[in-house]
């Protein structure tokens, strides 16, 4: 097998708790400086801000300019595209319904022409990243209420087709997608349409819980770590993701990720326990464990292919 690539990074480089955590040195005191500092340490990042608003192309072009040639951005889709709501103020002024500036809006509140135009502007924002060869996937994180079924599949395919030829990854957040016979149906559906299934590590036992299945349905394979906060369904955003992975947990995951990397040409690993720099610390630990010097469990059992780890 040819050498595969495994990239490790975090979900966001500029969330509020990270900026207040002290992870960035005082010298990295501008948006440009912080992205450059992050990109010196990791080869992959997930762009979270695009979920809340569609940036202008000048912004994404600046991200490209501030990062190395082989850096990768996974871009999260705007919330309206996945069935979530959005703040009216996040929409371009000329696309706001009824001239409103406040409140929230859903897809049904927009005329079809405005919704299509919003998609066009999202594509224009992504274009500088893709044109520079730095786009990994467009990440669609669907809401917990989107249950397994044909209408849900049609919703997913509508979003995917609007993104082609760019690669797409889908994170499903309703347990029904993996209940019983639905599991092979879900995996087959994603594989047939060349959609990467996002594997997750997350709290179990909730309606939104997805089992930690490490599967590659398309290139690249994508794994996101949410942590195991006991306040997953009750806390605010920071409390839901407040979790520090133990070294033994990360060591166990490193072995499993190597196995997944055997099955794909490219694997993206994102730490999403974004609370006061914990994701960055855990990502650095995991990247070190995935390095060639790591003592993999049962490494003598079979010859592993060469793997290029980019942190």
TrEMBL record:
Give the PANTHER family listed for this entry.
Answer: UNCHARACTERIZED PROTEIN YECE, UPF0759 PROTEIN YUNF
- Per the record, a Pfam family? DUF72
Protein name (database record): DUF72 domain-containing protein
State the InterPro entries in the record: DUF72 (IPR002763), UPF0759_sf (IPR036520)
Q: Which organism is it from?
A: Plantactinospora endophytica
């Amino acid at each position: 097998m040819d050498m595969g690539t495994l990239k490790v990074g975090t979900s966001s480089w500029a969330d509020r708790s990270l900026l207040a955590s002290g992870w960035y040195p005082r010298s990295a005191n501008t948006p440009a400086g912080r992205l450059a500092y992050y990109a010196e340490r990791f080869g992959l990042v997930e762009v979270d801000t695009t979920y809340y608003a569609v940036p202008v192309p000048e912004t994404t072009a600046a991200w490209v300019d501030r990062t190395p040639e082989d850096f990768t951005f996974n871009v999260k889709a705007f919330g309206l595209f996945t069935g979530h709501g959005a703040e009216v103020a996040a929409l371009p002024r000329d696309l706001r319904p009824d001239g409103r500036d406040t409140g929230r809006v859903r897809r049904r509140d927009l005329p079809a022409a405005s919704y299509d135009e919003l998609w066009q502007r999202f594509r224009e924002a992504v274009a500088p990243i893709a044109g520079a060869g730095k786009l990994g996937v467009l990440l669609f994180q669907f809401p917990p209420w989107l249950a397994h079924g044909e209408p849900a599949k049609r919703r997913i395919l509508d979003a995917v087709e609007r993104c082609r030829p760019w690669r797409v990854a889908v994170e499903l957040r309703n347990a029904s997608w993996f209940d019983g016979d639905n599991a092979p149906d879900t995996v087959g559906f994603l594989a047939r349409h060349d959609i990467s299934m996002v594997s997750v590590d997350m709290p179990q036992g909730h309606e939104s819980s997805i089992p930690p299945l490490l599967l590659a349905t398309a290139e690249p394979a994508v794994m996101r770590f949410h942590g195991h906060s006991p306040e997953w369904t009750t806390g605010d955003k920071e409390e839901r993701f407040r979790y520090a992975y133990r070294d033994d947990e990360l060591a166990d995951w490193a072995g499993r990720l190597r196995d997944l990397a055997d099955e794909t040409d490219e694997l993206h690993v994102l730490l999403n326990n974004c609370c006061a720099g914990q994701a960055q610390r855990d990502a650095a630990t995991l990247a070190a464990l995935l390095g060639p010097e790591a003592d993999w469990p049962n490494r003598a059992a079979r010859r592993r292919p060469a793997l290029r780890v980019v942190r």
